[in-house]
Amino acid sequence: MKDKKLTEYFIVFLLLTVLGAPHLYAEVPSWKINTHEYEFSMQFVAVANIDGMQLTKPDDLLAVFVGNECRGVTHPIPVNGGIEMVF
Hints:
The protein is an alpha+beta fold. The protein has one helix at residues 2-20; strands at residues 49-50, 53-54, 62-66, 69-74, 77-79, 84-86. The chain has a domain at 27-86.
């Protein structure tokens, strides 16, 4: 009886996860940068990953902070025939 109840809970959890996961999105941050506040600029190219998985979606964001101040925000750019995304 206990195993049957656990199986039922697992099936409900699995269905909620599979059906609900595609609808879960993070809120788009409202980071604002005034580039005229800075005398100098810097550029770099990076391949970003989280837990070994490369960020590959065009709506991914990479932001640079100094303390709590946002100094830069960018979206990925496809390279290598679209195989990789760089920021």
